[in-house]
Write a structure and sequence with these properties.
Elements lengths: L32 H27 L3 H24 L6 H12 L3 H23 L6 H9 L1 H13 L3
Helix pairs in contact: 1-2, 1-6, 2-3, 2-4, 2-5, 2-6, 3-4, 4-6
């Protein structure tokens, strides 16, 4: 890859550093299935929007911000899955992680998704965004781009009855 990516610790002017995946929550899911389905749909829309933003930041050569936005997309897609399967809305990332782990106990497909979630959390959010360690760059770029696959898988699993 010949393009140069900016993964410095300096944030470009105008870049939103506050990409808390939880700040995009539109409301909490009710225990009624209709409201839960609406909340799940909203989470998946959030995920797709965040991934589109990640790709825009990648096109602008800001790999760190792209990594964080891809992590936010992963987290929101996982929220959608959790909401669809449990009727509960995770409030923070540790809640999402715990609830995904609980769902993965009985479902092999969710177990596989849990591994991808952990990889995104650790490499995109922790290593690249927070620590500035985005190398090997090709792996980070692949993770950012493949977030769309994660969203599709989570949405498909959300549509299945346990």
């Amino acid at each position: 890859m010949n393009e140069r990516m900016d993964n410095s610790s300096e944030r470009p002017a105008g870049t939103d550093n506050n990409d808390d995946p939880d700040r995009h929550l539109v409301g909490s899911a009710s225990t009624s299935s209709g409201h839960s389905l609406d909340a799940a749909k909203i989470a998946f829309v959030d995920a797709r929007v965040m991934h589109a933003m990640a790709l825009e930041r990648l096109a602008a050569s800001d790999v760190r911000d792209a990594a964080e936005k891809a992590w936010c997309a992963t987290k929101r897609a996982t929220d959608g899955l959790v909401i669809a399967r449990t009727g509960e809305t995770p409030r923070k990332a540790p809640d999402t992680t715990r609830m995904l782990r609980e769902l993965a106990i009985d479902d092999l497909h969710i177990s596989h998704l849990r591994h991808l979630y952990s990889t995104a959390r650790d490499q995109l959010h922790g290593d690249c965004f927070y620590s500035g360690m985005c190398e090997p760059l090709d792996d980070t770029l692949d993770l950012i781009r493949s977030t769309s696959d994660y969203i599709k898988k989570a949405e498909h699993l959300a549509s299945l009855k346990p």
